[in-house]
Amino acid sequence: MKTKNMISAHCFIFLASSSITAAFVSPPSNPISTKIHHPLHQQLSSYIEVDESAVRDTSSLTQWAEGYGAQTVAGITSYDGVDLFAAANEDIAAGSAIMYTPANMFISSYGAKEEFGTLEKAEKMIKELAGEEQFPMFYVFVKLLSEYEKGTESPWFPWLNSLPRVFDSGAAMTPTCYDCLPPLAAKYAMAERVKYINCKQALKEVDFISEDTKKNDAVTKWAYNVLGTRAFEVGEEMVIVPMADMFNHGSIPNVEIHYDEEGSCNAYTTVDVPAGSPLLICYANPYNPSALFAKYGFLDENAPATFCKIMDIIPSTENRNLGLSFSRMLFYHENGGISEEVFDVLLFEHLSGEWQTQKDFYNACMNGDVDTKAAYHQQYLGDVMGRLKKHVDTFLIELDKLDEKAASKDIETHTRIPKIMAHNAFVREAFIRVKQNSIDPVVGYE
């Protein structure tokens, strides 16, 4: 799963329940049994090779999926030798059903917990390391490793064997990678790595996973990256939907995913899709491309904006209300614009030594008093823009230093460096446009 080029404006909610009637015929609702021996397994190798040099085997995927009740519009699956993705092979009208995956094919945290029971010792460790919110992720992680160990005996083998071996997400990066990223992107990427380490630590408390698998970093990291790049939160659970995981990310999606009353997954087009176009869903907030990069390992080059990278403000209830957020304090990539929240938060912080004035400005913002708010912004425009200019100029210098550091690395050893440099270049473009179009015309070029 990766991004495709789409001009961005909004991100639609795609993981939602719906009363839309599925256009496909539902199969029997019995779940996939882990004891089933699928006829296709006899034709496949006995294990999954997870080495990064291994070739993905996508040849049996469609036949396997159809055998378990999945249905798709003919020909929407495409493989370019690297990525397996969904695309329209003919014009598709808005509102068309294009994919159906029955609930019995899902890999889910609730299904894993039902199968394995409560893994009390592992849960205790996860809770101590990261908190209960990581429980669903851990159960999917264990489920993937359990199916990996079954080899061709796993009902999911053809799907597992079709998955990527190479990942560029934060969990797959090294300390050298983090060292070449700006602070926020590095923070996101290292957080993914920590989640993987937490899962691997807790795995020690799962007695039905073999010691060989537990000690195999390539296998455990592969399983975590499959989880991290293909699972989505549905309520308080985590779910991977085979076949639907082929939809790539688009900042303006043309596909929505709904779950019917039986819990099965139905995908529909939201607009007319011309032949040859990728079929896209929106994975997460498109206004935070660094978070997408860290979690999924791709750069959304058409993200409309990026966080302004001002990270030295101490959060408070008031500045959060004004917009202190990675997804609201934005620099716009296309035109170099600056979001209103940047100005509001910076002015509020600037007024910290003038308590009554700060309070009056805050109340004007909260009460929708546009005229009073505008008057304060006009009065302190030079101060706020001066702060912004200093920040942007300093950050651009830091990006240059990061690029010098990245360029000094051997890309044969550190294979993710080119993508990291592309991420940094995207951020630089946004900052340069902000400087040229929004800051320098106001405060000058000195």
Give me some keywords for this one.
446 residues, alpha+beta, 3-stranded antiparallel sheet, 16 helices, 43% helix, 10% strand, disordered N terminus
Structural write-up:
The protein has 446 residues and is an alpha+beta fold. Helix content is 43%, strand content 10%. The strands form five sheets. The protein has a five-stranded mixed β-sheet, with no helix packed on it. β3 and β4 form a beta hairpin. The protein is globular. The two termini are 45 Å apart. The model is unreliable at 3-22, 24-31 and 33-45 (pLDDT under 50).
Shape: globular
Number of helices: 16
Task: Give the strand content.
Answer: 5-15%
Radius of gyration: 24 Å
* Uncertain residue ranges: 3-22, 24-31, 33-45
**Would you tell me the overall average pLDDT?**
89
Largest beta-sheet characterization: 5 strands, mixed
Brief write-up:
The chain has 446 residues and is of the alpha+beta class. The protein has helices spanning 61-67, 109-116, 120-129, 135-150, 157-161, 175-179, 183-203, 211-215, 217-230, 289-296, 317-322, 340-350, 355-366, 370-379, 381-407, 417-443, and strands at residues 16-17, 71-72, 77-79, 84-86, 97-101, 107-108, 232-234, 237-240, 248-249, 255-259, 265-269, 280-281, 305-307, 330-332.
